[in-house]
Amino acid sequence: MSGGDQSGSEHPRRKLNDELVEMARCLAEVGPNINEIARRTGQFKETVRYRYHRFFLKSGITVQAVPNYARLGFKRLILVAKLNPACEVNAKSIFNALSDLCYLHSFTRVLLTGEYVIHVAVPRELAEKCAAVYLFLQNAGLFTELDVLAFEEMRNPPMKPEFFDFTEGTWRSGWATTGRERKLPLNAPSSVERYDKVDLLILKELDIDAGKRFVKMVGSVKVSLNALEFHFRDHVKARQLFRGYRLVWQGTHYDSEQQRAISRKDVYIELTLLLTKGTQAEVADLMSLLNRTPFLWSEAYAYGSAYCAEVFLPNYAYTEFLEYIDKLANKLGKKLRILLMDQSQSMRFVIAYSLFDGPTKKWLLDANAVLSTLNGMLPVVEEGPRPLPGLEHHT
Predict the structure, then answer these.
(1) Do residues 185 and 153 make contact, with C-beta atoms less than 8 angstroms apart?
(2) Higher per-residue confidence, 137 vs 375
(3) Burial of 53 (C-beta count, 10 Å sphere; 0-12/13-18/19+)
(4) What's the confidence (pLDDT) of residue 375?
(5) Mean pLDDT of 113-122
(6) Which DSSP category does 182 fall into?
(7) What average pLDDT does the segment 42-56 reach?
(8) What is the mean pLDDT of residues 311-318?
(9) Phi then psi for 242, rounded to 5 degrees?
(10) Model's pTM, two decimal places?
């Protein structure tokens, strides 16, 4: 009798979770648009609104718009760096300054080795100059070690809600054997679209909170409501300046006061997998393996040579994941580094909208401003930093 009762109680729970999975897919397509989700799923608006708050927001799953960096004309630099020990005490202040002045998009410290993995989202026309500024900072004593890697594409794969139990807040077992082969996103580079400062400010607001109403954006964007709606409809959306929406399922939240994203380390373990000097086949093999899992958060790739992935693993799946990639990791050998990240020393920033000059519609990089701002935080180097060719022309 008890078995029958258990089966009866399980069926409504499975039905509820199936409907939440369908909601998650809709959220990834249209964002937190309650009316549209209700229309697509056939649920009442009140039900959708309640479930969105109960099973998503209150469970730590938020929704953000994803800027389309390719259409914005951006390139991704990933730096693996070790700070001068004398600079560690000012690490957050230094990275904050670099986010304001030199396109730093995120940083995370590596446990055990003390390195930092730093993501830089920079306009393509300034990529070489930006890399030169970071190399100059190494020469000035900020970094004792620095590797600069350039990637053509960067993306956040969509959440795989079919592997997640929204009623329990846990990932289902069996993902390693049921993950399907997925088409790899090795497409030709996207064409760069036109945009202005208002478009960038809208992207910044949606990156923080995809559910923010336009009427509440007016103060930040500093245009009328009609103008804001026009820019979103005819520029941001029509020109595909964002890639849709991502469900932030690993518990990261955006601190509006500090204007940066802060991660949680009590629920998920974060790994960075970095493949360098790989063949095209090796890059494709690693991408394929990771894209079949539900834990891949981001990936950057340089066609046929390098690949970098951020993976967030629930504590109970850590060993299973390592077993899952063990065979390929052994085959790749020293080409593949698997880094254990310290989420308490991690921040992500919004697009560097303040470096865009509205009147000229050009991105700026003032090397002198970078160096003067950081001057008081840098250790004294006896010989002084040697200038890099062309650095004086970086504005």
Answers:
(1) yes
(2) 137
(3) exposed
(4) 86
(5) 97
(6) -
(7) 95
(8) 94
(9) -135, 155
(10) 0.88
Q: Which of 154-158, 236-240, 302-306 has the highest mean pLDDT?
A: 236-240
Mean pLDDT to the nearest integer, 264-277: 86
Two structure tokens written together for 12: 């409504």
Place of tokens 């559910």: 211
Report pLDDT for 120.
97
Cα distance between residue 346 and residue 207, in whole Å: 18
Choice among 43-47, 124-128, 184-188, 330-334 with the minimum mean pLDDT: 184-188
In a 10 Å sphere around its CB, with 0-12 CB exposed, 13-18 middle and 19+ buried, how is residue 118 labelled? buried
User: If DSSP codes are grouped into helix, strand and coil, which group holds residue 362?
Assistant: strand
> Among 85, 77, 82, which Cα is nearest to 138's?
82
For the chain, strand residue ranges (E) read 62-67, 74-83, 104-110, 116-123, 143-151, 153-155, 164-165, 170-171, 242-248, 253-255, 260-262, 268-275, 296-302, 306-314, 336-348, 356-357, 362-363
Tell me, what DSSP letter sits at residue 58? T
Enumerate long-range contacts of 191-195, CB under 8 Å, 24 or more apart. 191/71, 192/70, 192/71, 192/72, 192/73, 193/71, 193/72, 193/239, 193/240, 193/241, 194/235, 194/239, 195/72, 195/235, 195/236, 195/239, 195/241, 195/361
Which of these ranges, 32-36, 96-100, 278-282, has the smallest mean pLDDT?
278-282
Residue 377 pLDDT? 82
Q: Which of these, 348, 329, 350, 299, lies nearest to 151 by C-alpha position? A: 299
Q: What whole-number distance in Å separates Cα of residue 274 and Cα of residue 277?
A: 10
Spatial distance between the Cα atoms of 129 and 329, rounded to a whole number of angstroms: 34
